[in-house]
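Read as amino acids, tokens; as here:

___
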Amino acid sequence: MRAAAADAVGILILCLASAAAALDFKYHHTEELEEFLRGVHAAHPSLTHLHSIGRSVQGRDLWVLVLGRFPTHHKIGIPEFKYVANMHGDETVGREILLHLIDFLVTSYGRDPVITRLLNNTRIHIMPTMNPDGFEATKVPDCYYTPGRYNGNREDLNRNFPDAFEDNRASIQPETQAVMDWIKNETFVLSANLHGGALVASYTFDNGNPVTGSLKGYSRSPDDDVFIHLAKTYSSNHASMYKGTGCDSRQTFPEGITNGYSWYQLEGGMQDYNYVWGQCFEITLELSCCKYPPEDQLGKFWRDNKVALIEYIKQVHLGVKGQVTDKNGNPIPNAIVEAKGRQHVCPYRTNQHGEYFLLLLPGTYVINATVPGFKSMLKTVEIPDNTANFSAVKQDFSFPEVSDKISSKVTSCPKTPLYQELSLRGRAAVKPTVHLLVLMTVVLAIFK
């Protein structure tokens, strides 16, 4: 009886593995996508972890396949990376090329030294579809627009997140909430969101106000140089994105990149949410001029993006990482760690393991670690380009005054328009100065 059961399990695993091996260039609907993901996990159980982070409006699972040496849990010192596709259900190229990326990673592990080191030193999360309802609702593929763009409640998921610049009154959707919870529960460092309808790498901010330079048509983040580098990394390794020709002569993107706000203003976007509240640098990758192209073009899309997808993941190892501990070596969660001159409107803090990750380009930086109630600690760090070594520079901080009985109180930034509040505070600070200047002018006129 036991032998028969064992044989049955073996046959099931073999069938699932065969399903994974048979991946071809076609559109995979929900059941086929799930079968493929289950097959990959069955064939590579020690390298992968398959789980659902929630359900769509219509009850479909939001599947994530995690790949790495420690796929089931976070490992101290190993950064977390994610790709998310098919946020708009009728933008389909990203959904399929992420399946081929999964296939490439698991079949290359142990054979290709670069992929092996990448997976040994990175925990990679791949969500092929954030909007399975929209994909299934797209009955007639179209290059430009279908109602499948929206979720089951006809809401645009990329206008559905809390916004740092204005009050987003949209009702948070199940898919959005699932992603927000996912971001909160992991320590994501770098991410990309795959779309269609253009050919460009777009970076934060998507929204803006005068504090971020919006009056000049560009919304600049404190890490603008890093975002430009990230966008260029993808575009320059793509088969044609770097040319910047876009999809027609009316719209060009120098070097294949754009600041999101410079392209068009967007409220409630996912990439800004990741950066402000998730401590995760995310860019938006527009991968096809046609939103839902014919299946016979999928092979070329994979070949065009394959190198760029891998090179972009490597960038998670830019900059500096480390732990903040007390005098006994215990981790201090929620300590603020930032690079001088790059303070975030919602300060970047250590996770439950006392870890921090800061993406920075090569150069010299002053890193400031702060435990509330204690004197800040400053360290000058020289950062080389360590992406080829698959590890950021390590810089730990130990606070000798802090014992394990005193830990940083857990706080989080409110999901309110933080930059709007910053702008209002700036205006309030200017007013007394203006009033003082007017008063001095009047006094001088009287004396004259």
Summary: Residues 1-20, 429-448 have pLDDT under 50 and may be disordered.
